[in-house]
Design brief:
TIM Barrel, two-stranded antiparallel ribbon, 8-stranded parallel β-sheet, 38% helix, 16% strand, alpha/beta
């Protein structure tokens, strides 16, 4: 095989023993878990907002951002449950480009997976300690999940991973909601098949051991838009799309029907300012239809301190080095406007 083994990496158990989560922080995380769970199961009418930078590449900027977010959460706590995106694993369409802090804790240096593992745990823990937020991240590498699973309250499976059997199996053993994105083709059947698979119990091999998972009834869908055969973006956040998904859910008889609408990616054609309009349209659809209101449990928004994006090496504090994001002023205003429209 053309594999060069560079070094042994510590297991998640070893990392969590070396950098344990304090009990007061674990208690914060359990409370946030319960808030999010109640939204997914329909026991709470609050709206779930998963918001933050496309990629979390700078710990100080991420913690600055989440501290600002905490002030908004306090003022909107009767209407919104906010979970910050602290995304440290980045899927790349062609395999090129920045793959996240787990690969490169310093985006300008060579990959170092050991330092990356330490860096992502430190950053997620610091967010929880300083802002009171447990976090959301993407499950790009299922076997890495346990490095952070005691800190996260939400997990996403991306458009390029959603049909992968290993992701589905590991999702079935997660204790928190797992959102399955539609694939880049837009096929809703693939997405719903993933939800079915993750809600079922499974036996499989994980980190060299035979494991059993009970099934995760909090697994749900994320609509992120699609790309057609000509490479054109096709949004799937409109009223008709949401009604179609509701009908498909109804035929499946799945537990806890729920959908999060991703306002960026192919829904916005990566025109990041469009996220404001898209969020408002989804809220309008929820007001117009009780079925859609009961299905759509939240929004996913890409946001950072500075609007837009820049290339690695340009050193713009609080601005994305991957996809462009809403800036803080627009994000703060949008969150308050969303809260006003939730009933």
């Amino acid at each position: 095989m053309g594999l060069t083994f560079v070094k042994d990496l510590p297991t998640p158990v070893e990392i969590r023993e070396e950098f344990p989560l304090a009990e007061n922080l674990a208690a914060l995380k359990r409370r946030k878990d319960e808030e999010v769970r109640k939204i997914i199961t329909g026991q709470s009418n609050k709206l779930l907002i998963i918001i933050g930078p496309c990629s979390a590449d700078n710990e100080d900027a991420v913690c600055d951002y989440t501290s600002r977010l905490a002030k908004v959460q306090e003022k909107t706590k009767d209407k919104l449950v906010i979970v910050p995106r602290v995304y440290t694993n980045k899927p790349r369409t062609t395999g090129e480009g920045y793959m996240g802090m787990v690969h490169q804790p310093d985006p300008e240096k060579k990959p170092d997976m050991y330092e990356g593992i330490l860096a992502i745990r430190h950053m997620h823990m610091r967010v929880l300690q300083e802002s009171g937020f447990s976090t959301a991240d993407e499950m790009l590498y299922p076997e890495n999940l346990e490095y952070l699973s005691d800190i996260m309250s939400y997990i996403a499976v991306g458009a390029r991973s959603v049909e992968n059997q290993f992701h589905r199996l590991v999702a079935s053993g997660c204790d928190v909601p797992v959102g399955m994105k539609n694939p880049t083709s837009g096929d809703l059947t693939v997405m719903l098949n993933s939800v079915v698979a993750a809600q079922l119990p499974h036996d499989f091999i994980f980190r060299g051991k035979e494991v059993q998972c009970p099934g995760n009834l909090l697994t749900h869908t994320i609509l992120r838009g699609a790309v057609n055969k000509r490479g054109q973006c096709i949004p799937n956040y409109h009223y008709e799309d949401l009604k179609l998904l509701f009908d498909l859910y109804s035929k499946r008889g799945l537990k806890n029907p729920a959908c999060i609408v991703d306002t960026n990616h192919s829904n916005s054609n990566k025109e990041y300012k469009e996220q404001i309009r898209i969020a408002k349209e989804v809220l309008h659809s929820r007001r117009h239809s009780s079925d859609i209101k009961h299905l759509v449990k939240g929004l996913m928004i890409e946001s950072y301190i500075e609007p837009g994006s820049h290339k690695i090496g340009q050193h713009c504090y609080g601005q994305s080095i991957t996809d462009p994001c809403l800036g803080w002023e627009d994000s703060e205003r949008l969150l308050y406007e969303i809260a006003e429209q939730v009933d």
